[in-house]
Design goal:
The protein has 129 residues and is mainly alpha-helical. The chain has one domain. The protein contains 4 helices and no strands. The longest helix has 35 residues. The two termini are 13 Å apart. This is Cytochrome b561 domain-containing protein. Keywords: Membrane, Transmembrane, Transmembrane helix.
């Protein structure tokens, strides 16, 4: 994970996660409405930038004839993007199954934890090169 990905993780992902908690726990109707508007936009942006970063990373590995899934950093990145895809689908199912809101919150927090591990693995990978 390069420094721009770390900024995306901490700025967009961190604030997006905060907004998710505000949606869930705030008693202020106006704050909730603003958070409901911005939360999906921020995290969709994070997904977009991470997908671009993954494309760049895979392209770099392919052009240097290195195996794609050799590092734990690559594996956590792929798992994280797959989980973000599932996370994106869940809100469309909330109406029929309100319990999925809990799954969405737990999964979202777990994804952010995974991406923190991913960042540490990326730093380790960068320092070893």
């Amino acid at each position: 994970m390069d420094s721009s990905s770390a900024v995306v993780l901490f700025a967009m992902g961190g604030y997006g996660t905060y907004l998710g908690f505000r949606i869930r726990y705030s008693d202020d109707v106006e704050e909730k409405a603003k958070a409901k508007d911005l939360h999906p936009k921020l995290l969709a942006g994070m997904f977009f930038f991470f997908a671009l970063g993954a494309t760049g990373g895979v392209t770099s590995l392919l052009t240097s004839d290195k195996p794609i899934f050799e590092s734990p950093h690559a594996v956590t990145g792929v798992i994280g993007l797959a989980l973000l895809t599932i996370q994106t689908i869940l809100p469309s199912l909330f109406e029929g199954n309100p319990g999925l809101r809990n799954v969405h919150g737990i999964l979202g927090s777990s994804i952010m934890t995974l991406f923190l591990i991913h960042a540490a693995l990326g730093l380790q990978l960068g320092l070893s090169s």
